[in-house]
Amino acid sequence: MNFLSHYYFDRDTTDCYYTLGTVLPDLLKNADKTIVLHPEDLVHNNAAVNSIINGWNKHLLVDKYFHSSEFFKTHSHQLKKELLPALKGSPVKPFFLGHIGIELILDNLLLTTHKIKVGDFYEHLNTCSERIIYDFLVFAGMEQPLLFFKFFDDFKKSRYLRSYSEIEQVTYALKRICMRVWANPFSLENEAGITAVVLNYRTAIFDNFMQIYTEIEEKLSF
User: Fold this and answer.
1) Is 133 left (phi over 0), alpha (psi -120 to 50) or beta?
2) Do 136 and 39 contact (CB within 8 A), yes or no?
3) How far apart are CA 84 and CA 98, in angstroms?
């Protein structure tokens, strides 16, 4: 799942460090795809650092339930098939785009149906002390933790997740993600075709998209 979908499950928490932990694996991956940390079983003497670890573990659990769900398997596959004509001449692998595409569509739906308030999400991140984040990164084994903070500051200032409410920006986000692997993933024709498919798919799942959140919440409650 993407940032806002992870936030959905803990949108009512008052612990900013826990909120940060629920999205930190993806933040680090966006900052530098070579960063690999495994703090899952660590225990720190600072409660705030432990909150980040607990949020991190929640992220892993939510992703596990999501990626093993019939919802994800069905819709990532169907979206892949519908995107195929739009990807003519593109080097992007259709299964890759189907995977991240359904996740971004879900974020768009959470925003546009007002299931979450993106401003509250950013407020949580802004409240976190850089000292605590630094301590977590060092404790988790990151050798150059300062490299993360430029990306994190830009992420908070740009507030680009707000733009996910616009379908064209979902296509743009897909392009940016693909550019980590392929230098020129899409032509203008590709982008127009992808936007049309994403819009149609969003409409198709609009009435039932919350079923995956309900399913995951039920599993988390066990």
Assistant:
1) alpha
2) yes
3) 10
Residue 64's identity, in one-letter code, is K
Residue 210 CB neighbour total at 10 angstroms: 16
The DSSP output letter for 61 is: H
- pLDDT per position as a tens digit, 182-202: 999 999 999 999 999 999 999
CB 6 within 8 A of CB 161: no
Please say whether the beta carbons of 53 and 39 come within 8 A.
yes
Chain segment 3-56, per-residue pLDDT in tens: 999 999 999 999 999 999 999 999 999 999 889 999 999 999 999 999 999 999
DSSP string covering 28-66: HHHH-TT-----TT---SSHHHHHHHHHHHHHHHHHHHH
Residue 55, CB-side half-sphere exposure with 13 Å CA sphere: 31
Q: Is 116 helix (H, G, I), strand (E, B) or coil?
A: coil
Q: CB–CB of 125/156 below 8 Å?
A: yes
Residue type for position 188 = L
Q: Give pLDDT, residue 33.
A: 86
One-letter identity of residue 212: I
Structure token digits, residue 137: 């990164």
pTM of the model: 0.95
In the numeric block, the tokens 């359904």 are attached to 102
